[in-house]
Design goal:
- The structure is a homodimer of 196-residue chains.
- Chain A is α+β, with helices and mostly antiparallel strands.
- Helix content of chain A is 41%, strand content 16%.
């Protein structure tokens, strides 16, 4: 009884949601992706820097190029998912910072003038946003299949540029037959949380 | 209408939730933290590796040591929040992998025998889990104040060890007076999402 969130929402986002390995043919619409973004964009990032970028791979030609860059185990899923999204971090996010963090516009120059600092911050904060995005996909009643098994430099070269760091690739759609393994165990509270 | 998630849940987790800079005195109980963990532990990670570790700073002595390691702007918040949690990545997560990913116990040796590979994977996946954890705090009706402005090596030395990478520190509690600035703008859909 310690949670305020409605139990049906807990199930939808966490307990009944699963990483899907197969999908139905039902398309994922532009409206669904917009609704997901319009929800998860409010998730917090440092200085509201919002560095996550999303590349939707919709054309058959682009899909074919991407599948070739996936690991052997991931290629068939990426070939058949209704929608595939490349999540990346924008290492030049500081250009938007005066607009995104208007009560301290100096943050751009005070904290983010060095590229290496920006890359670290962009990767950390865009990965946080990837967590929000995965839950947002579930909030739309869809299943997400996030993957890190792919050729990072290949994806950067084929789909992004030197200012973007690929983080993960997410298959999105309605789960198909035999979409998942049985739920794997989780660590117990005492294995994860310590008190000092 | 593209989202299935109940609008009240959308508000609780994203639209009305805000990063709090002040808190009331109301304590955050062990039961609340357990309920948060028991929900967010189901969020997906690669190979179910679940590398996030949480250090709850509850004793006044530990709090004092931590406050000294926070940046000037963050120290007062960390001094007064009802609860402060250090989130870190366990770079030795692979030891638990045969139990956590029982349908492919070879993953431990096949993918994670190198420390550098483990560190990258642990940081990425624990950061994803940090995103789930922040939303879990909100699911408990509490406000989160995630921060990256602190002495990382100092926190590692004082509270963790060489096998753990500090990711962020999160103040947790009920929001106090003037807990936040006005909501800052977010990037438009077309600034974030492109289609190929």
């Amino acid at each position: 009884m310690s949670l305020v969130l409605d139990p049906a929402a807990q199930d939808l986002l966490f307990r009944e949601a699963r990483t899907a390995n197969t999908f139905t043919d039902e398309p994922v619409t532009e409206e669904q992706v917009q609704a997901i973004y319009d929800l998860v964009k409010y998730g917090p990032t440092a200085f509201n820097q919002s560095p996550l970028r999303v590349t939707l791979v919709r054309s058959p030609e682009a899909r074919e190029r991407l599948v070739k860059l996936m690991s052997e185990g991931n290629a068939p899923k990426t070939a058949t998912a209704p929608l595939v999204a490349i999540l990346s971090a924008d290492n030049e996010f500081h250009q938007e910072l005066p607009a995104l963090f208007p009560h301290f516009p100096q943050a751009k120059d005070a904290f983010f003038s060095e590229r290496a600092v920006r890359e670290n911050s962009a990767t950390l904060n865009a990965t946080l946003q990837a967590g929000y995005f995965i839950l947002g996909i579930r909030a739309a009643g869809l299943a997400a299949g996030p993957m890190t098994g792919f050729d990072y430099e290949g994806v950067r070269k084929e789909f992004l540029d030197d200012d973007h760091t690929p983080l993960m690739i997410v298959n999105i759609g309605k789960p198909g037959p035999d979409a998942w393994f049985p739920r794997s165990p989780r660590l117990a509270y005492d294995e994860v949380v310590t008190t000092v």
